[in-house]
Structure formats: C-alpha cells, structure tokens
Amino acid sequence: MRLRELVALCRRELAEGGLSPSPDAEILVSCAAGIPRSRLALEGERDASAAAGPVSLLVRRRLAGEPVQYILGAWDFYGREFRLTRDTLIPRPETEGLVERVIGAWLGEGRDRGTMLDVGAGCGAIGVTLCLELPRVKVVAVDVSAGALAVARDNARAMKAVDRMLFVRADGYSALQRGDRFDVVVANPPYVSEKEWDLLPREVRDFEPAQALLAGADGLDVIRPLVERAWEHLAPRGRLWVEIGETQAVAVRALPCGPLAFAGVARDLAGRDRVACWIR
To answer: DSSP 3-state assignment of 255?
Structure first.
C-alpha cells in the first residue's frame, strides 16, 4: 500500500464514522508511519504497508471518541510540544492567549527577575512556557493531581526549565505560607458550569479530567476563592491572571477581591471574553 492510499483510506474510515477526516487522517498516518505531516504529499508513492496495521489501531481509538492529542500523547503549545496523559487537559489556543498577555504585561512594565505561581499546572504548558519565555523568572507550579504534576515535571525537564521550577501537590493556595508572595499568579482553573457540562463534546466529557473542567452550578467554584485570597500571596504591583468562560465576565468583575483592583477582561482571537486580570 502506498502512503497516499493509506491517507485516503484513513480519511474514508473517519468520514464513515461521522468524524471530520481532516486534519486527523494526516496526523494519525504521520504518527504511525514516522513521517512529518509536511512530507506526506511529497512521499505519497512510498511503500506504507508496515504502517497500515498501526494506523488501523489509531483510527479505531479515534472513532471511539478519543481526542487525537491523547492518541499522540503530545500536543503543541506556544511553539513547543508538551507531553500529555489523561491526567492533564489538552492545551488550547485560548490558554496561549492567557500566557501571551502575562508575558506582554511583564515585559511592558520593564520587569526582569521575579517569581510566578501557576495554579492548576496540568501538563505544565503555562508554567514551563513562562520560564522559557522569561529566562530570569522562577515558577511554582501547583496542582491537586499527582499524575498531572508528574507530567508537568517531565515536560519541564525535557525543555530545560526544571531548575527554575518548583512542583507542589496542593489545592489552590493550600500549601502556601502567609508570607509567600509572588509577582504573578496565573491560572487556567476549572470554569465549566453544571449546565454547560452536558453541552461539551463527548471527546471532552469522556476523556479529559472532569476535576480540571467542572466548577459547580455557576462555574465559579474554583475561581471565586482564587480571586478572594489572591491578595494574600501577591507582592505589591503583583497581578492575578485567570482564564474564564466566555459568559463569566460580569460575574468575575463582581467577585470579592480584597485590596486588589479589577483590571478588566480581555478577549480571545474569536472575540470571546477569556482572560480576567486583577492588580494589587
């Protein structure tokens, strides 16, 4: 079987299963055949018989609803490939926007050295990226999931950021001392409400960790204490950055935040409210 024929077969099977064949077919064939996606068309006449069996197994997993990111075990975030497991959320472009705003504000204020707290570290996409983009910054990465922290630590080690990161298993601020202060607290917390849960695609509901997504009746069960107590752990001029649901801007503006000042909500590339900020 030629490579182009294998791609065509993969596309047909995905389509017959009710899934969009592009770009998943190319991604799965690229993974099984060990050929970069950019070269699939160029090497279409190559013999791919040995990859047919592995591709069939990958297609079966995809047809069962498993996201292609978990099938691959890795996904791109901010130009780097992060290893993933079912313990971690899949990194998304909206969170890249969160990181971009943190970096932009940091550089815009002329800051250099500093410490940041990544609450709900997941695979480490936020914390590791901040370390690599801001080479004089140290990051404490906190997550309640031991599995997620292990993945985050592995990603930090693979990307040479581990020496400037500390990994702590804890729920929110629970492991911090009263005097622990950070220049930035950043979080992509659970913010899906109970009503929204049933509307999520099955790839999300059935495969991504629910504890990293679901946050009570209004979706604010995690954001609320995160905002209320942030002032206790922010240094003067420190900022709290939180990714939020697109319908939550009005609600988060009204959250108690102690001496912090609400600095507004920024929109993502699709024009949806996505990133809230507070300043100490």
So the answer is: coil
Sign of the CA dihedral with 23 first, then 26, 27, and 28 last: positive
Counting beta carbons within 10 angstroms of the beta carbon of residue 209, is it exposed (0 to 12), middle (13 to 18) or buried (19 or more)?
middle
Q: Is 153 exposed, middle or buried (0-12, 13-18, 19+ CB in 10 A)?
A: middle
Using the CB atoms, write b or e for 12-43: b if 16+ within 10 Å: ebbeeeebebeebbbbbbbbbbebeeeebeee
Length reported for the chain: 280
DSSP class of residue 37 equals G
Q: Please name the residue that has the structure tokens 């209320």.
A: 228
Residue keyed to tokens 């649901």: 245
What pTM does this model have?
0.93
Judged against a pLDDT cut of 90, whether residue 22 lies above it is answered with no
CA 196: distance to chain centroid? 19
Q: Are 121 and 161 in contact (CB under 8 A)?
A: no
Asked if residue 234 has pLDDT above 90, the reply is yes
Q: What is the pLDDT of residues 116-147, one digit of tens each?
A: 999 999 999 999 999 999 999 999 999 999 99
Query: pLDDT band at residue 148, thresholds of 50, 70 and 90?
Result: very high
